[in-house]
Design goal:
Blueprint: H1 2-7, E1 13-16, H2 21-28, E2 37-40, H3 43-49, E3 54-59, H4 74-81, E4 84-96, H5 104-115, E5 119-124, E6 131-138, H6 160-165, H7 188-191, H8 193-213
Parallel strand pairs: 1-2, 3-4
Antiparallel strand pairs: 4-6, 5-6
Amino acid sequence: LAQELVDLGLTVDAVDIDGRIPEIARDYFYLDDASINFHIDDARHFIRTNRQRYDLVIFDMASAEVQPVNLFTWQCFSEIKAVLNEDAMVIVNFQGYITGQDAQPFKSILKTLRSIGFHTYHWYMWPGHFTDIYIYAGLDPIPFDRLTPDNLNPCCRDSTYYFLNHPFVEDTIDLSAGLVLDDDLPVLDRINTKAIVNWRKSAIMAVIRENIRGGIGLFD
């Protein structure tokens, strides 16, 4: 992700609490780390102490299969809001469900963002199933109608038809089942347990299948 942003000509501050990540990204994910400002820090601490302002903030993190609950509260989003430039965008990558009773975590993130004044939009990969969900938030409505094949980065151009024929529309879904997530009541991991378990199962099975196909023994 960081390399894609650099390839688009953006200046990138990458924040991770694990000091091993820059080396791993360079050695195994072809990252040109000389072009990225790496900060080994807790995300909330970085937000509070950094003096930069941003046009884009991306939440794409996990501790194993659980996303840190302290980064999805109204307090954290308010701290992010304070460091945004005009017309900036926040993108949240989340795993869960978008319909039914299991959609409460997703709806809670939307409700939390909207409670402090963000306009929200979302896109998902597999409706009706456990899926990757991308939540987009802006202080003003986001002009997604400006998307064209020419301003999509190379990794997304294969999906041009989908993006241009399924336009993003500002969220109007019923959020009554959602919670406004709060530092003093960190419940996101608990209410998202079903998705967390399914994420772990699918990741394990994917690794096992790839190892078997590659002739790699699972046990000595």
